[in-house]
Amino acid sequence: MVLEVNSFSLSPPSLENIAGKLQRALSSSFQSTTVSVVNSPNFREAPFYLAAEGLSGDARVVDVGGPGNLYPLPLADKSWSLKEVAEAIGLGTDKGSLLGAAGGPYVDLGFNTELAASLSWEGGFNNLLNAARYIEVTPSGDIHVDKSPSDNIGLMGNFFGSLGEPGPVLKIEAEQPYNPNISFSETVRQGVNSIYGDDLPISLGGVFLIKSGKANYHIMPDFPLDSEVPWSNTVEFNNWLQWRDFDGPVVLPVYPGLRLRLEHSHCFSKETDSAGGHYHNGLDAYAKYEAYFNTAQVIYRVDPAEGDGP
């Protein structure tokens, strides 16, 4: 498969520059906030359980497909192999990693799901470590989370890519939001944008924990039986989604970028196989968040979807 690839180079400021300014920006949203530059923890270990050890080395963000593949008409057969995506953007043929949020591998499962993606490789693409989880709405209406059977994604995906090496990262600790319905990832994105504006586009990617507190998520159920008939409006589309509230702790591979799709975060919990999905916002004034981000040097746009989507 030949993928359409476009790229945009970025020149982000240093992590130290971001840290000092972002702490001041976030202090208006949380009663307690600390932003610092630290050496990354090992993300393969608890509580993260991701495929790569770190977020450093040749960092970039990747936007694949798009909401136009889902709305107004779901295109179930739209899929990509993340290995092929990595090859197409020249990411670490010997070593690399991708993590983020995507549609699940319909081509493997035969039903529609959300995907919290996490993939790494060392010694070439034949040595893949796939720590991705898919999140499904079962026929009985329950939520089930399981390991993905392949490196395929469907519909769309937003990823942070790197060599997966340990190194300096931006660490954010925040708790007790003044607005309990705050979206942590969107608040970080807006904070960065308030500092640097559109004149200095910055894309961050990484992972954050909802260490405690309840939050709101949606999970795409299976495609409707009349999936060849477009949704008539966004209200009908949003009513099709399944909405759930889950308590922390949960892990969210995240893409709070400042171009293309502005933010996209999917979650899972190692503690249970019945919590996960597309993160929207918190629901708890006593919530605690812990995040680790790195800056991207390049944005890649792969196989953009036709149409704008909701």
From TrEMBL:
It is found in: Nucleus. Keywords: Hydrolase, Metal-binding, Nucleus, Zinc. The keyword Transit peptide does not apply. InterPro entries: C11orf54_DUF1907. It comes from the Eukaryota. Residues 21-302 form the DUF1907 domain. Coiled coil: none annotated. The keyword Zinc applies. Monomer. This is DUF1907 domain-containing protein. It comes from Bionectria ochroleuca (Gliocladium roseum). The lineage of its organism: Eukaryota, Fungi, Dikarya, Ascomycota, Pezizomycotina.
